[in-house]
Amino acid sequence: MRFVSRTAVVFFLALAPSLAVAGDAPRAVVELFTSQGCSSCPPADRLMAELSRREDLVALTYPVDYWDYLGWRDTLASGANSQRQRDYAENRGDRAVYTPQIVVNGQDHVVGSDRAALRAALERAAPLPAKVRLKRVGDLVEIHVEGRLPEGTRMASVSLVAVAPPVEVAIGRGENRGRSITYVNVVRELHAVGMWEGGAATFRLPLREMRRTGATGCAAIVQEERAGRPGRVLGVGRL
Questions:
Q1: 127, exposed or middle or buried, with CB in 10 Å at 0-12, 13-18, 19+?
Q2: How far apart are CA 70 and CA 199, in angstroms?
Q3: How far is it, in rounded angstroms, from Cα 30 to Cα 51?
Q4: Sign of dihedral through CA atoms 96, 162, 23, 234?
Q5: pTM for the whole thing?
Q6: Helix or strand or coil: residue 117?
Q7: How many whole angstroms separate alpha carbon 184 and alpha carbon 164?
Q8: Above 90 in pLDDT, residue 60?
Q9: Which residues make beta-bridge pairs with 158?
């Protein structure tokens, strides 16, 4: 595992099949922060391929750019992805920014090779109070949100995440030189759609916003914000 701080831990999670329940609506968002320049990341990237097949999870990959100086410029990374990871750490107050890192429902982050850690994070995750449904209506993506805000929360942000199809990258330099790694559900862009104040609400975004990024799928995330930074996930849906 590569940390921005001084600690180094090797990251790999193997999930038992019993964790998956076919046919369930998404009950959690699993966000992986990874880098093509991180030698500890390929096991986590392979794990994401497994998680992406689970119907009870929305698994998203966020390639970060802060290891580009090590000799290989990540071809999928963006500064926005790196900032999202830092924002999560700021909200948690732990400054834990490293690769590969999985964040569950905008709160817990998983470290190490102990699969029980991920199981525990998913078990700790409270049921999502917002139901999120997506559908295509002509040239629009329509997001319908319904439910109740948690006590003390006045409103939550609604974002549309543009997701690219799986892509295999041949890495020519750096710590993963000579390896070909497949990345799934790569986030190409995250669009702020609006704010949800509880109850039933519908949000719309033109499909062209997604198409111009090369994305072929999308997810919608409803989550709390603190000082403009993303926090606890309240609901998620996918198209």
A1: exposed
A2: 48
A3: 8
A4: positive
A5: 0.88
A6: helix
A7: 8
A8: yes
A9: 194, 222
161 closest CA partner among 12, 60, 45? 60
pLDDT per residue as tens digits for the range 115-146: 678 778 988 999 999 999 999 999 999 999 99
pLDDT 10s digits, 214-231: 888 999 999 999 889 999
Quote the CA–CA distance of 155 and 228 in Å, as a whole number: 12
pLDDT score of 114: 58
Reply yes or no on whether the pLDDT at 168 is more than 70: yes
CA quadruple 224, 230, 235, 239: dihedral, nearest 10: 150
Quickly tell me which residue has 């449904």 as its tokens. 133
Give dist(CA 157, CA 147) in Å, integer: 14
Residue of 178, 165, 182 lying closest to 46 (CA atoms): 182
